Target: Glycerol-3-phosphate dehydrogenase [NAD(P)+]
Amino acid sequence: ASAANNTPTLLLARDEAVSLDINTRHRNPKYLGDLPLPHRLQSTTCLEQALAHLQGSAQPQRLIILGVPVMAMRSTCETWLPLLQASNLANTPVVWTCKGFEQNSGQLPHEIVYSVFGNQIPNTGVLSGPSFAKEVTRNLPVALTVASHNEITVQNTTAALHANNTRIYASNDVIGVEVGGALKNVMAIACGISDGLELGANARAALITRGLAEITRLGIALGGQAATFSGLTGLGDLVLTATGDLSRNRQVGLALGQGQSLDSILAAGMTAEGVRCARDALNRATALNIDMPITKAVCDVLFNAIPPLQAVSRLLAREAKAEWPAE
Ligand SMILES: NC(=O)C1=CN([C@@H]2O[C@H](COP(=O)(O)OP(=O)(O)OC[C@H]3O[C@@H](n4cnc5c(N)ncnc54)[C@H](OP(=O)(O)O)[C@@H]3O)[C@@H](O)[C@H]2O)C=CC1
Ligand SMILES: O=C(CO)COP(=O)(O)O
Model:
């Protein structure tokens, strides 16, 4: 999106073949099929070259976008901290697209970043919202939220991305944005399971709505703002991922509902953040005494060998209750 917006953009890859394909054929077949990429998007695998690119970027658009799975965030931040400091780039805004809770620590992305960067890299934020990479690559309309406590992070993210078909909205609710992004992946697995079992459109709508209640409950308990969950990074991303077949989390659920095993579904190495973070999300909820029945049902199917139909029966057998407040 930044390259489509004429922002000079360099993609740091770790796979030489990916870099070469981007620079010579303007394609990224490993992730994006045969979709053409903007010619002004360049790639490198060399950290020094990435730092030099940042040093040469105009200050209003200078920005690092961290787009790795949550499990790679900590090591990536640890690599970058001394490099940014040594290159006089410690004030460069860093935003991440990562959606999930870190496995075992249960930390949200900002907790990982803050624990590594402390106040040594002061300008940080999260960039999130309904945005399938393949649609962004086709430069189709997309609306995203940048949440940060620093004005410069919001300004530079907006300057780099907001134009043409990309709209950037600002927020100061880092926690709410991250909880929505993490848990919509778990709900997408639930909706995929339901659709794989052919339980119908009514069931899917119920899961999305009660899933949002569940996300909101945990999000508020963790310090998020209620309004965030009806915004782009809450309801918006939940609807996209729970209903859009480009979603890898939804695909995992569909295959589970159709009887495939989790191991065979993930054998090709697909990133499905909901699988990685469902258990840690449930642990954080349990510690706060928050009820998360859909997340629990997804964990049962993923990790406790409960057949999908049995997990659905357990959900439906719960006692009748008031719809709202969502306790
Ligand atoms: N794809 C999408 O449509 C969207 C994804 N997101 C979120 O963004 C984050 C990244 O997702 P996505 O881009 O799809 O992820 P991918 O699995 O496609 O990986 C993205 C990049 O991270 C690199 N990477 C993977 N593992 C490691 C590691 N252990 N150490 C260093 N680098 C690593 C990959 O390198 P290599 O190729 O060498 O493995 C690749 O360059 C996720 O949290 C996801 O939920 C957010 C919005 C949309
Ligand atoms: O987060 C996404 C879209 O906003 C991508 O979802 P998946 O990781 O399920 O493909």
Remarks:
- The chain has two domains: 9-172, 175-316.
